[in-house]
Specification:
5-stranded antiparallel beta sheet, globular, 23 strands, 19% strand, 573 residues, Dipeptide-binding Protein, domain 3, alpha+beta, disordered N terminus, 4-stranded mixed beta sheet
């Protein structure tokens, strides 16, 4: 494989993602990390009459948090070996210190730091959690067990005894109730989007949650609804960093704006499965890619994540002997706007543009063939992923399609206005279109102006993914489908109202589904409608990398967002 010495870097033109997508039809949204991953199967998939098999000593519908019996290395996680996991110390390694890289996070409370999961997932916990990130293995965290009613509207959680926040206060049912009261004040959509209407402490260690309608991914979403110390929130308020007190394996020991964080292992942590090992983890804020790489090579830092193919090769060329992990980032599907380009109202023209764009050439040029070309709009394994054989490069066929509807490619001229960081991608596409006679000028915009431009629907072609997540499995559709959605990217209402109505009806079925499986059928049907209509086309998952000192073991990441699970990491001594 040839080595690329200059990286043409892509950021998403559309990077708006959410913490909990709308489960109700009113569809409010909130920002969260852009995500990709395997479809969750842990939310209830049974019809009400098909309740889980009861076990001795369990109430109907109860789900116990079982011990670790078997660990299998999943595609959704990067972990050295299963043996590394089993052999982790399961206790704090006194005196150990690791230095990593982070971005600045001025606000540390989860509702203001939703995209910074590397911080929030290590200092906060939820009622439930994904064991090793496996969405088919949801276990109790703050809650040791839970059950639900036949209609999925009442959920009862038994709070684990003996848990304390890192300020020393008790985490019981009343504390969870008060914490969520504050959370709701700061971010009401986090509850209403899950159809939650009430939460009450119905016993010292029992919390009862009521929904106005079933939410097909409720259990999975419960792994991301964090619990903070109500004492700290009462004392400091919902936007003060002094309120950043959780029950997690780590706590914030120090923060200096623009400089970095110091996290300390929680000495009183209660849960063996996530027992922290490294005592002190320092996060330095370094923005320049070359400075990051040199810091790693010089031993000033112990590891960092990056997306630069050039950095990957430079580490190799300089004899870096640590662990280098290679994975993929987010997919970037392309959307065609029939509102601003009249020719896009014609099916054959949209199909022809798919034939004109050579993703393999883009992958070679920009990623040295290290990206992953999608065969669907959405990332492989994500909720809406539907493989489609209609995405392929064939400019001659594209020209025939254009001719069949009497459209001369040379008559098409429009501007693609995009953020600066995605300019190289669109310059490449413009060159490909020019070969068949289409003129597409590239006009970079500042990010602030670009977002307004996108919201107004004044763009022509975009490349971006508003994100699937296991806690928000139909995330993109809550942004792009309906006229009132944040950034409308589906324009079949202009040229095929009947199809558009089918999509709206399917959307309603999806968001009102009782079970995960029912939701998934409709979610994938939406993808099928859009793909077969060529309202959008597939993109490329850009490569993603991480490099770590060879002494560090059990390097675990969720591949849908690459949030590092610090509590699994340990030093081999």
């Amino acid at each position: 494989m040839k080595k690329v010495r200059s990286l043409l870097c892509i950021l998403l033109a559309l990077s708006m993602v959410l913490l909990f997508c709308a489960c109700a039809k009113d569809g409010g949204t909130e920002d969260t990390p852009d995500t990709t991953g395997k479809p969750a199967t842990a939310a209830p998939t049974e019809k009400p009459e098909e309740k889980p098999e009861e076990k001795p000593g369990e109430e109907p519908g109860e789900t116990p948090a079982g011990p670790v019996e078997e660990v299998v290395s999943k595609d959704t996680y990067v972990i050295h070996t299963v043996e590394d996991y089993y052999n982790r110390p399961k206790q704090i390694q006194k005196g150990t210190e690791v230095t990593l890289i982070c971005t600045d996070v001025p606000s540390h409370v989860p509702w203001n730091a939703v995209s910074e999961g590397w911080l929030t997932t290590n200092i906060y916990e939820s009622l439930l959690y994904l064991h090793l990130g496996d969405t088919s293995d949801i276990r109790g965290q703050i809650a040791e067990s839970w059950k639900y009613s036949d209609d999925y509207l009442t959920w009862t959680f038994q709070i684990r005894d003996g848990i304390k926040f890192t300020d020393g206060t008790d985490c019981d049912a009343a504390a969870v109730k008060k914490a969520w009261d504050f959370y709701n004040e700061a971010s009401p959509a986090s509850f209403t989007n899950l159809n939650i209407v009430s939460w009450e402490a119905t016993g010292d260690m029992e919390l009862t949650v009521k929904l106005k309608a079933p939410c097909s991914y409720f259990e999975t979403a419960m792994t991301r609804l964090f619990v903070l110390s109500p004492t700290a929130l009462e004392l400091n308020g919902i936007n003060d960093n002094k309120s950043a007190i959780g029950t997690g394996p780590y706590m914030i020991d120090d923060y200096t704006s623009g400089v970095g964080f110091v996290l300390k292992a929680n000495p009183d942590y209660y849960f063996e499965e996530k027992m922290p090992n490294i005592e002190t983890i320092k996060f330095s804020i370094i923005k320049d890619e070359n400075t990051k790489m040199m810091a790693l090579l010089n031993g000033d830092i112990d590891g960092y994540q990056f997306s630069s193919v050039e950095s990957y090769y430079n580490l190799k060329d300089n004899g870096y002997d640590g662990t280098i992990i290679q994975n993929y980032g987010n997919a970037n599907p392309f959307f065609f706007n029939a509102k601003t380009v009249p020719e896009f109202e014609i099916f054959e023209v949209r199909q022809a543009f798919v034939r004109f764009i050579d993703l393999e050439a883009i992958n070679r040029l920009m990623y040295d063939d290290m990206g992953l070309i999608q065969n669907s709009l959405w990332t492989v394994g994500s909720s809406g992923d539907v493989p489609f054989d209609g995405f392929y490069y064939d400019p001659d066929e594209g020209l025939e399609l254009m001719a069949s509807v009497g459209v001369d490619p040379k008559s098409m001229s429009f501007a693609a206005k995009i953020i600066d960081s995605s300019g190289d991608l669109f310059v490449t596409i413009a060159g490909q279109l020019a070969k068949v006679g289409v003129t597409m000028e590239v006009e970079p915009l500042e990010p602030e102006a670009n977002f307004t431009f996108l919201m107004n629907g004044d763009w022509t072609i975009t490349a971006g993914n508003s994100g699937y997540a296991d806690s928000s499995p139909y995330g993109p559709w809550t942004f792009i489908l309906r006229p009132e959605h944040l950034i409308k990217e589906v324009w079949s209402d202009i040229y095929d109202p009947e199809l558009y109505q089918k999509m709206l009806d399917t959307y309603d079925k999806m968001v009102s589904a009782l079970t995960w499986d029912e939701m998934l059928v409709n979610c994938r049907q939406l993808t099928t409608y859009l793909q077969e209509d060529y309202g959008a086309m597939n993109g490329i998952q850009a490569p993603w990398f991480a490099a770590f000192d060879k002494s560090l073991k059990c390097l675990v990441f969720a591949s849908e967002n690459h949030f590092q699970q610090l509590f699994y990491m340990y030093k081999e001594v």
